[in-house]
Design brief:
With 508 residues, the protein is of the alpha/beta class. It has helices at 18-23, 27-35, 51-60, 64-67, 85-93, 104-107, 132-150, 184-192, 196-217, 248-251, 273-281, 316-326, 332-337, 343-354, 360-377, 384-393, 406-416, 438-447, 461-469, 500-505; strands at residues 5-13, 37-42, 96-101, 121-124, 158-161, 164-167, 175-182, 225-232, 252-258, 303-306, 398-401, 423-425, 454-458, 473-476, 489-491. It has a nine-stranded mixed β-sheet, with helices on both faces. A six-stranded parallel β-sheet has the order 12-11-10-13-14-15, with helices on both faces. It is elongated, with a radius of gyration of 27 Å. One of its GO terms (molecular function) is hydrolase activity.
Amino acid sequence: MHEAAHRVLVVGIDGVRLDALNRLPTPHLDALAAEGFLAPIEVDADTPTMSGPCWATVVTGVTVAKHGVWSNDFTGNRLDVFPDFATRLAVQDGRRSFVAAGWQPLMQAHHGGPLFRAPSRTAYISPTADTPEAWEHCDEQITDAAVHVLADAEAGAETVVGAVSVAGAEAADDIEASFVYLGPPDETAHFLGCGEEYEASIRRADARLGRLLAAVRSRPSFADEQWTFLVVTDHGHVDAGGHGGRTSEERTAWLVAAGPGIGPAPRPLRHADVAAQVFAALGRHPDRHWTLDGRPFAAAPHAVLLDMDGTLVDTESLWLRTVREAVPRIGTDDLFDVLGRSAAEAALRLLPLTGDDDPQPLAADLEARFLTAVQREAAPLPGALALLDLLQESGIPTALVSASSRPVMDAVLKTLGADRFGTTVAEGETPRGKPAADPYLAAARALLVDPAACLAVEDSPTGVAAAEAAGCRVLAVPSYAPIEPGPRRTVRRGLEGIGREELWAAGL
């Protein structure tokens, strides 16, 4: 199956109030929101409601305490340690990135800048005067330059579009991540307040966004690409046009997002989530040493590691019946305590109830009874085969990770289809079993993926503990014992109805 190339376009529109956006006709923003979502962002309590700190948080994925941009004077920043996403991708990964902007601190060494240190390609021109009219003219030129690049027009090492220098040597179709800055709404509000001219500037920004989207969709390679679009503002304004304070009008920003796996906004969003989503959309799992503060809201897992019993096949009831038959005096708490555990570990835990000294006969009895029941009665749970089909169609590697023995797993694989899994890990094939991390670490290692970029699908607290110990995000579908939602853990009733959006958002 041919894998589509992933691309991201971030458009930053400065100083657009959410209430103004909601009441104005902005067809291009509205269309993107209909494909994905429009959601408010509240500027962090420690962040000044100024362009410098907010944009730095948007593009670095860390807050002011780390990037050190506290005002529109960037002096004293730590952008060398916490660089913008365009620079990270270009310098650390060798990926092509593009930035187009007209505000000087974003692009040049001015008052401690630039914010964007080393993208692969840039387009910059400053307005001829600090007036709304000059900023509108500047943004027309910036949009012209960005359209030229995004449309995959052929360009040499440096092409002049109007009066804009577009610097960069490689062909535009190599560019994977772009940031385009549109500034006039903010400048208009500063000069004229949030009245008719301000609203007209917002509508013009929407029209420029439409030109950028049209350029992307005109690309000869567009049919073979998957684009994520993120449109974000930095802060709002008071009615008179200023900002920098803590009023709701100033602290309320917003994000429009659309693209693969992006559905309704799943949770309260932060500015730092934008850069995290850029990396996720490109399949780039952040290095832990980046210490990003943001989290993506939709990310294709690099692999999905699936528990077997009670998750994909209806064997938990068979296991509980087996334990009851082997240990008739067992109580409910002890019964649920052995969910998700191997026969050997269950036997150790159940030994005090039997009065025996040796757990091995009980373990052998449990294993034999359970295997017989699985061979006769095991069946896929609702939604299990559809989920495996979705993963196969999406090209996502899968592993089967079970606390059951290899004979039990092999019996189940005859029902599920062994060819659906890139690797399988059964009880006894790692130094420790669940709830230790070993089985999930082994599965990720076999698939050559980072466990932190994997999604584990589990039904028991024991399995969830193992997956989380390995660093995986988790989708929990509780069978008998309850499981509560938590960080990097999503809980849903079952596997039925899981689509791309639910899968991409699980555990984030």
